[in-house]
Fold this sequence. Notes:
Order of helices and strands: EHEHHHEEH
Structural class: alpha+beta
Distance between the termini: 10 Å
Largest sheet: 4 strands, mixed
Number of helices: 5
Helix content: 25-40%
Radius of gyration: 14 Å
Amino acid sequence: MEIWINPACSKCRSAVQLLDTEGAEYTVRRYLEDVPSPDEIRAVLDRLGLEPWDITRTQEADAKELGLKEWPREAGSREQWISALAGHPKLIQRPIITADDGTAVVARTDEAVRDAMGR
């Protein structure tokens, strides 16, 4: 299991604390420092079963600067969104856990973290 975190995020800290409490084996990826490539973002999106706009933090300053709220949310714009996430990793929703079974979850709740541990 791998968890993408921003250590400054309370949801990320809670998810890591729960993983530790449950004795889960996992790897931490500080995605603001170890920025995912577009290919890695595509792979996580496939595992999540989501589109890039589904995991974009649209209230961030970078999102407002880019005008993301106005971008089309359609297949033809998918690569533009992925490039924005790769170029501005702060826009990626967090934490994301890639589970051992090949799936992934956006682990913003204890239930989502437990779900990932059970996969």
